[in-house]
Amino acid sequence: MRRTAAGVVSTLVLAMTLLLLAPAHAASSTTVAWPLGDNPAGVDAAGWWSSKCDAGNAAGMSPHRATDDDTLALAEHLKPAVISQAGQVSWDALPGSGARFGPAFTVSDPSTLSALSLEVRNPGQQAIIGRVGVYFHNPADGPDHYWFGEARVNDTATNPTQWHALQFANTNFTWRRYIGTTADLNTTPVGTIASFTKQFQSAPAIVGFELGCSGSATGTAFDFDSPSFTTVDDGVVSYDLEAPRTRLTMAASGSTTGIGGGISFGLTLTNEYTRQPMSVPVALEALQYGSRTWRVVGTSRAAGVKVVVRPTVHTSYRWHFLGIATDTAVGAPSYSSSASVSVRPRLSGSVKKRHLNAGAKISLGGTVAPSRSGLRVSLQRQVHGHWVTLATTRTTGSGKYHLTKRANRKGQWHLRALLYAQSGLLTATSPTHTVKVTAKPKPKRKHRPKHKTKPKTHEHTSGSSGSGAGHSTTPPPDGGH
């Protein structure tokens, strides 16, 4: 497949190509996903043709059915030329194989054939050389009789290196009737597929392309894709030549890890056509929290070989097979289902003082690993079995935090720091610390000394009797002696 992804068509739809007659209906369009070497319908609706690159081997252009010969012919004469992320692939013949090779398919009523084409390209800038063959059995003839129509292909495209379609619905074919490999009639009528088969009773025909011969026995490389035909009953049918589908499965050793912890991923890659495991490079991709881009973080080649990852943030992982197109291995790209790994950060914490008086500030600080700024961290106290948030802050650029709370009540304070689940990290808690808060001591009363009483003084008045301190201090008047 080169341009558009193809849907899978049911066996019933494909089997209709073998019906001798079908009721008239509106033209439809069907695209058949056709893996390498596979017969998609299981009813010989499609296969491969091949023959030697010699002019006398016309009768040898016989259809290969869904047998081991298909796979053998592919291995000998065919290899993929282009493969894309969607599994789109075009095919080419091996240069020097000395054989013509190409797709073949059943047309239910060739007498109504209105279109027949094949997309081709020659990277070697040479014209595509080969032939188109039609294998048609007239029901009125004996069981061993068949007509073989042949038209030469001599591509005259101006630029053969570009993809272009070769058209054959209006091409005149040379027809011969055979018994086995021997021509039993001397006549070689000429006519288009539709005009020639109209003269007989309606019957299916096998149409095939053989390309790659260049006039010598060595052959030449070419690319081909998307054989297509149109009839009244079949509508438009296109065969999208696919690489074999592959199935990729993942096995993870866990879904949660701490900082520095590892998770291992294993894989199994299977070719869905052969049902055999493939030992080819497969990439392990990661999608980190907050990112939209998957990036490759590891590779593996076979089952049993595991890749260990050590995420620092919530990360999704998947295996991605990029597809392969070599002479020895062919497979379409595929993805495994994804597996998520959650990361539990490491939160340290310590208190400055373990004994405080009521009213003093409790201080708890620490760091978060991985260090990241802006992470929300809370100080919590355990009260009656429940953790109660007391204060909240955010980490600095180095992952540090510092929390404080005034201890307003005495008792045992069981404290911890809590990091909330955020920014691709799981919840984490620090170790629990106990701080003893005691009542604030009462202030001591100051001692006040007693005041001394001053002695009373008695004034001496005249006319009083007695002696000592009771005399008057008033000086006598002048001249009172």
Q: What does it look like?
A:
By secondary structure, this protein is mainly beta. The protein folds into three domains: 11-241, no CATH class; 246-343, Sandwich (Immunoglobulin-like), CATH 2.60.40; 346-438, Immunoglobulins (Immunoglobulin-like), CATH 2.60.40.10. It contains three helices and 38 strands. Strands 2, 3, 6, 8, 9, 11, 12, 13 and 14 form a nine-stranded antiparallel β-sheet that branches. Strands 1, 4, 5, 7, 10, 15 and 16 form a seven-stranded mixed β-sheet that branches. The protein is rod-shaped and about 170 Å long.
Concise structural overview:
Helices cover 4% and strands 44% of the residues. By secondary structure, the protein is mainly beta.
List keywords for this structure.
about 475 residues, mainly beta, Immunoglobulin-like, nine-stranded antiparallel sheet, seven-stranded mixed sheet, about 5% helix, disordered N terminus
Largest sheet geometry: 9 strands, antiparallel
Q: How many H/I helical runs? A: 3
Structural class: mainly beta
Task: Give a count of the beta strands, DSSP E runs of length 2 or more.
Answer: 38
Poorly predicted regions: 1-27, 33-97, 215-219, 461-474, 477-481
Task: Report how far apart the termini are.
Answer: 156 Å
Whole-number radius of gyration? 48 Å
What oligomerization state is this entry in? single chain
Binned, the helix content reads: under 10%
Question: How many structural domains are formed by the residues?
Answer: 3
Question: Approximately how much beta-strand content do the residues carry?
Answer: 35-45%
**Average pLDDT:** 74
Shape assignment: rod-shaped
